Amino acid sequence: MTIEAICPASCGELLQGYIEGGEKLISYSINLFSKVTIREEQKKSIGKASKNDSKAYQMLEQVFQYYGYHQRDAINLCLQIDSSIPIAKGMASSTADLAATAVATANYLGKKLSEEEIAKLCIKIEPTDSTIFSSITLFDHLKGSFKKQYGSIPKCKVLLLEGKERIDTIDFRKTDHSSCLKENESALKEALKSFEEGIKSSDLKEIGKAATISAFANQKILYKEGLEKIGELSEKLGAYGINVAHSGSVVGILYNEESFDREKFYHMIKSQPYMKNYLSIVSYDIIPGGGKIINI
Fold first, then answer.
1. pLDDT digits (tens, 9 = 90+) for 172-199
2. Pairing state between β 278-287 and 157-163
3. CATH classification at residue 142
4. What is residue 131's DSSP assignment?
5. How far is 135 from 140, CA to CA, in rounded Å?
6. Residue 195: which H helix or E strand, with range?
7. What span, in angstroms and rounded, lies between the C-alpha atoms of 21 and 147?
8. Residue of 61, 50, 146, 47 lying closest to 106 (CA atoms)
9. Looking at the 3D structure of the chain, how many domains does it have?
10. pLDDT by residue (tens digit) across 20-61?
11. Helix 54-66 to helix 93-108 angle, to the nearest 10 degrees?
12. What is the pTM (predicted TM-score) of this model?
């Protein structure tokens, strides 16, 4: 038996910070995926994971335990991860691996996990992005509870600037950012208000405004050289706004083809000195999140 599941990447977060009494975020998903394959083999496979796959094996065992199975019941399962998502850039690569593993493992056992169950399982391993939800979700990425779900945002694309810097989320969180988070609380309150107004009225400009507020507020916590210039240029050429990975190095420019002059943006930005910090600029579609089985 072979089971395959996928979960998408994010391009950072639309909002992240101290919101409604604690740290929360709103991620969004793009059409870039991690694929997890689980297959039965005669040889013993559990415990032979590479360093990169060890969290996924931990999830596999956790799902077995969740449904009352013993770890030894998974001994002949082999887990393979094929991911196109850059690692340690703030693109939810690890969350995608874990969520896809959870979905595939549950399917192997003849079960189906809810998104809330997947969230709780992921949080036991590490802080988790809200890309595990099909809807845009305000999510407590540290405790695993979701605060509010918003459905989907209007059709939109993102121009993703992939930073060169790799940032380990666990190491990043070892630094106490609480004072900056508290300082940013009023800005995030304003951002959330704009975001919710944008969702209610299907206004991408309001959603972009919210994301931009959060991106600039985060400069106190994780500075991105040239971000203000990127924001100014993208707005001048018709983008809705910018967003960042609040604990990573990617920057997103929210746009659609009708209003944003992408070619002019490429031409004008490529010679800027701050572009030394970026590897590539690639356009992606914004899509619903969540893990799903693909080989049915």
1. 878 888 899 999 999 999 999 999 999 9
2. antiparallel
3. 3.30.230.120
4. G
5. 15
6. helix 185-201
7. 11
8. 61
9. 1
10. 989 999 999 999 999 999 999 876 554 444 545 899 999 999
11. 40
12. 0.93
